[in-house]
Amino acid sequence: MKLQYDTLVCELQPALGGCIAGLWWNHLPVLRSTCADQLQSVRQAASYPLLPYSNRIAQAVLHWQGQQHPLFKNWAPDQHSIHGVGWERPWSVLAQTPHSALLGYQHTPDTSWPFAFDATQGFTVSAQGLAMTMSITNRADHAVPVGLGWHPFFVKRPGSHITFTAQARWEMGPDQLPVQRLASPGLDADVADLVIDHCFDGWAGEAVLRDDQITARLTSTLEHLVVYTVPERSDIAIEPVSHANNAFNRAAHGLDDARRLGVITLQSSDTFSCAMRITLASSTPETPAP
What we know:
Layout lengths: L1 E4 L2 E6 L5 E7 L2 E2 L17 E4 L5 E2 L3 E4 L2 E4 L10 E2 L9 E5 L3 E8 L9 E10 L2 E10 L5 E3 L2 E7 L5 E5 L2 E5 L5 E6 L2 E5 L5 E6 L4 E5 L3 E7 L3 E6 L5 E7 L5 H6 L5 H4 L2 E3 L4 E12 L8
């Protein structure tokens, strides 16, 4: 499925986790990109949805309202469950125009997630870039925890530099779970040699990735940001999310305040929605100071 506005092209693959297969602007890949009809796995996608939670749930066991819910371990050999179910399931096309699409997914309780929900994703390309929305509605007859987010992989190019502001960063343990929240101003760093796999909170809702050709400005209504890359990778994941890693279990065990962690409790039939936008511009050489 192709959406296009002028030189901005976004290809979707609803059957593979409702993912973005590729995003190009002026014939340059903005995200790591593959034509939709050639994409073989969502794990190689340009971006995929994170729902009904992002990142990891420790030991693949959800702790909620005094009960334990074993979850499927979907990232072998990782001992945790990761990124929810939306990215692993086919989505339906609910509406489509040359510039926009609306995808839907209905979840029936299973070993990957024990609570029923409906979800939608919206995509629109325009002169302002790519705009995305995501919503989740609780179809269980009781309150449930929910989280939403996106997992875009931006291309690294010569001169790639990332900048954003935040209030804190979660330090990770050897099991890839957060262990400590430390004050952090965010990030202002060259990407080529960057080693990072952290969640930031108090995110100001904007991150800029600039290289010698493209300036990509990512904005979102969400307040957490996960950033992941290592020098060996040709991309950097910049992920707006609603909650910290393993937030549901940390809150259930009383390790941190649920609100600060970003835990959202959704009552039966209620809906939580969020938005993200990628705005693109040509990079211009910086003028030396006189």
